[in-house]
Amino acid sequence: MREITVQNRCSFCNKKAAHTIIDNFNLFQESDAIKFCDDHYSCFQVGSTLGQMELNGKLLSVLLNIHDEKSGEDLKNNIFDLIPMARQQYNAMKGKRSYNHLSPKYFYDSLNKKVIGQDEAKKRISLTVYEHIRATYQTNYNDKYNILLLGPSGSGKTLITTSIANDLEVPFVIGDATAYSPTGFQGADADSVIHELFLKTQGDIDSAERGIVFIDEIDKLAGNSSKSKIESLNTNTQFSMLKLIEGKKVKIPSSILGDQGGPATFVDTAKMLFCFGGAFNGLSDIVAEKLKIHNKNIGFTKNDEKSKNDLKPHEILGLATHEILNESLIDYGLAAEFVGRIQTVVILAPLTKEELTQCLLDLDNSPINKQQILFAEHGIELEFDEEFIEDIVSKVEAMGTGTRALNNMVKRSVSFAAFEHIGPHSAKPKKIIITKDCADHPEKYSTVDW
Known about the structure:
Structural class: alpha/beta
Largest sheet: 5 strands, parallel
CATH topology of the largest domain: Rossmann fold
Radius of gyration: 28 Å
CATH superfamily of the largest domain: P-loop containing nucleotide triphosphate hydrolases
Strand order of the largest sheet: 4-7-10-3-11
Number of strands: 14
Shape: flat
Number of helices: 19
CATH architecture of the largest domain: 3-Layer(aba) Sandwich
């Protein structure tokens, strides 16, 4: 009887191999192919079909339950939970990527699709992010490219950093500076933001170490409080964050790892991009003093004289050099060492009436588009009249709360119509019209019946 060689045997028994498939997933490290006898190949085909059906069902469930604000990074991690091997393949592919296909203009063009206005800020941020990515691919990574975004609520600080993280396909976390304390005794430890980033990657250290961290409300940590204990606490919290942006190795607690007896796990923050945001109310007054802008002209022609009263806060900040801005931030109450680690300071302006209107009408994920899609799913056309648009834009501009207020006002204005007509058993008019009155009285919408 002719002996069957090892090369001709089934990978699962000693029978003669009749089928071969290429092992693209590296299931068997010693071979690039898997061999099957007739019996095991039949089992493989049945298992493959059933497994694909189950996987398709799980993927469909994930896609059908995506929240409106669900980021691409969160969705990707959900997919990886369903297909663990996909994470391994993705990380292998990501390791081979370089920054060669990226450019400052690439980030700028991407931001333009999502962020209205802030043209100069988007250009500066795009260049800084490119420099950061380029530096992380260097052998010796010594430079840090941390960003501080100065701007009022709703000016786009969070949206900009979220968009950059999605473009880079890196994990992204948001923290609130007021929630942290130096020891974690009177609030979360500053290291906890890195713990959250680690959890976002499902324990993938390499991915976490290339993530982006955004800390908002950093101006609330300025040590200019009249209460010395609070001032000391705020300053110490700044220094605990300083250690992170300088490149600290953060230990991941065993409670997060779920392994009490395993070796210690550390995440290095050296290659992370840290972004900070804050309104910094009153900073423009400090800058104006340094620029000697009082109630006199500042060098404009006689026919176009302007004073401090003619300039808006973001315009005054825009006149300052980087050095003067740094000095003013230190006078405001940020630690000099902390300010010294911020390479890029970006001024964001409040959105104009025209820009707020664009946010409502031109963006794919605008509050109006989201509501129209929601009603369309139930067979109802949702229309917003021009007076309604003009009214809420004027109100939001007066409040100075930006895009966040737009979203809240649109949701409130359609709330009665949604309650009464969305759902399988509700009455279904052909069209619902949201009028100007709905901004203050959501029940005053009108309908067009079939």
